[in-house]
Amino acid sequence: MHIHAYEKLWLALSIVLILALIGTVTYGAVGPGVAMVADSQSTIDPAALDEDERFSEPRVEQVGENEYEAYVVARQFGFQPDPIVVPANSTVTFYVTSADVIHGFEVVGTSANTMVVPGEVSEITVETDEPTEYGIVCNEYCGAGHHVMQGKLHVVSQSQFENRGGDSA
Amino acid sequence: MSTALESERTFVDKFPDEARVVRAAFLSSFFALFLGAVFGIIQTLHRTDVARIIPSTDYYTVLTAHGVFMVISFTIFFLVGLFTWAITRSLDRPLLNIKITWTWYGLMATGMTLTGVSILAGFVDSIDMSADVLYTFYAPLQAHPLFYAGLVVFIVGTWIAGADWFRTFLAWRRDHPDERIPLQTFMVLTTMTMWYIASSAVAASVLLFLLPWSLGFIDQVNPTLTRTLFWFFGHPVVYFWLMPAYMLWYTVLPKIAGGRLFSDPLARVVFVLFVLLSTPVGIHHQYLDPGIAEGFKFISMTNTMFLLLPSLLTAFTVVASVEYGARKNGGTGLLGWLTHLPWRKPEFTGMMLAGLMFAAGGFSGMVNAGMNINYLIHNTLWVPGHFHLTVGTAVALTMMAGTYWLWPQISNKPIYSSQIGLFQVVLWFIGMALMSNAMHAQGLLGVPRRTAEPEYSGFDYPTMFGGFEELNIQIAIGGTLLFVSTILFLGNLVLTMGNPTASGLAETLPTPVSGPEDAPQVLDNLRLWVSIALTLVVLAYALPLAAIINRGGLLGPGVGTYPVWLAPLFDALADAAAPLLGAVTDASAALVEVGR
Ligand code: HEM
Ligand SMILES: [Cu+2]
Ligand SMILES: [Cu+2]
């Protein structure tokens, strides 16, 4: 087959580009350890969340020094808890599940973003910085009230977090 | 060079029956484009809060209609029309049996009507029927059974269409045992091969799970499984939209530019690559899904990146072919040749602008494909920003531009106004540049897609790229220009149909610079490519599907049903349908009698 010289060059450059793209993603995965939402959690009965140890009472819990876990339930058309209150400068792992249909969980303006599928638990870990407030939106269509489905993430100082009282339930 | 005799006869002169089918398919396609554009402008003005003429809860009926009419009806009806033309033209023989041809057209039209009715019924409160599930119909949101049934009928129609073209090809093969498959026929056959593989999954999902579930035969489905089966189909379908555009870029655009296709063998390589690579990548739409292992996502990501190759090759070949035409007509210099091109012709300018936007879409697509950067933009308005460049322009604008060239060939009617045509394609380009750019930018701010009211009470978007409000204005202006452009296209076509027929409109397609004789014979070995493609699909999907079923069970981990339609009237409907079905059976029996 006759291939023009320029065409060969183009082909070579294309393949370099493709390998470079694969390379950057691979580096992102194994280098700085950008974790993906994956199948690390086992399945769950979405109709029986109220019997589940983690999701019967959606909340934020301390699990280690500077380590926290947030158990979040998405359902038509809101998130629990709301707001989700977490301490600054800490590691927070979100476990998000749905009580009904497929939803999304997006902390606006960040890459904390996951699908929320009934029967599955999405796990995402983030590092918080300074105290601030973020919006949370459901970014997957979930029914006629989808556009009202929002929540808040409050990153507060350690002392405020300890004095937060009952507002995380 | 074409023979004088050939150039005197247009496609419709030679193949009047086939031309009628092509026209019918195109008109169905453009009717869907019209509906899609009406819903498109309604939702654009709604979500940007410029004008809200519907309650926000109806937004999702509009969005479902826009998605389904644009990417299922508009694109696929155009494809079957174009492929019917291409097979007949390039094999230079009529289809085997035009009745079969009309049968598949009829099935597609019926199926789409059923699905369309089930969607539009969502606007009428007194009809307990709706299908507000968007074009991705993710369970456990549930549509009326008619929605799924219509989709199946439509897809079966496309399968028969493919069979029709394959049979015509085989008949040609018996008469021409040693010839190379003509290029356009090759494109049709490879594209349809891909389609059979891809659509089998969505057909299985609908027939085994969604339709029985919507009819109440099973209580629940596995949402991850049906979602995965959807995306098994959902990625290759984008190439199903794109291949008609590629066919026009490879075979018609060089001719309009005054030249010839650069390389026939490379074109074949590109289509073979699509057969091989377009399916084992669908999981890239599920990077953010729980319940799917990271390894599977990674495999899908690497395949996706390789899928850039055929499009990069296409960019080269198409530009080289156009440049060849320009230089043949006196163009010189590094870029000076660009002035020796027929920019006044809407069919040329439209396709070139479409190609340019496709390149931009390719860049934003690389971001989507990057498994980690994807987290920033997944399900934000970035994504519609991306695919309005690809399917919404590379495909849609090429189809409109192609129509300016093709319609005279299939009707013997000259286009009403080339000036309006030229204005229309440029307007589309400007409108899309505005709308898509602002959509990308809003996506980066975190503005979600698929929502009636993207402004939330609880927080404000960060101010970057001009800010949320300003970008909304750009989206609204862009969308309005697109709507006007669509209406101009359709108006021009209607006026064209009112033109008296003329003679001397015939155009032929030149042979490539480097012809099929340069292409290794193995490229035409479709059996080989099908078996490799199937192997790759099994490799990419067997384990993920097994893992999903293993986790959640075939029918899901206890997930319920969330109809976005109401049940009671359905029983009444079924009662009403029973006698109707009886009547149809009787009528067909009678027909069979008459047939004897
Ligand atoms: C008249 C020109 C058009 C306008 C004004 C328009 C506008 C829009 C807008 C604003 C959205 C985003 C809605 C949302 O996510 O809330 C959208 C979605 C979409 N558009 Fe268009 N569009 C046009 C043409 C097209 C064309 C030509 C195609 C394809 C051939 C197309 C395919 C789609 C699809 C598939 C979606 C996604 C639907 C979904 O999320 O379920 N559009 N369109
Ligand atoms: Cu939602
Ligand atoms: Cu894809």
TrEMBL record, chain A:
The keyword Metal-binding applies. It is found in: Cell envelope. The keyword rRNA processing does not apply. It comes from the Archaea. GO terms for cellular component: membrane. Gene3D superfamilies: Cupredoxins - blue copper proteins. GO terms for molecular function: copper ion binding; cytochrome-c oxidase activity. Keywords: Copper, Metal-binding. Residues 39-167 form the Cytochrome oxidase subunit II copper A binding domain. InterPro entries: Ba3_CcO_II_C, CcO_II-like_C, Copper_CuA, Cupredoxin, NosZ/Cyto_c_oxidase_sub2. It holds the Pfam family COX2. This is Cytochrome c oxidase subunit 2. It comes from Halorubrum sodomense.
Automatic annotation (TrEMBL), chain B:
It is found in: Membrane. Gene3D superfamilies: Cytochrome c oxidase-like, subunit I domain. It comes from Halorubrum sodomense. It is a multi-pass membrane protein. GO terms for cellular component: membrane. Residues 26-523 form the Cytochrome oxidase subunit I profile domain. GO terms for biological process: aerobic respiration. The keyword Lipid biosynthesis does not apply. This is Cytochrome c oxidase subunit 1. Keywords: Electron transport, Heme, Iron, Membrane, Metal-binding, Respiratory chain, Transmembrane, Transmembrane helix, Transport. InterPro entries: Ba3-like_Oxidase_I, Cyt_c_oxase-like_su1_dom, Cyt_c_oxase-like_su1_sf, Cyt_C_Oxase_1, Cyt_c_Oxase_su1_BS. GO terms for molecular function: cytochrome-c oxidase activity; heme binding. The keyword Transferase does not apply.
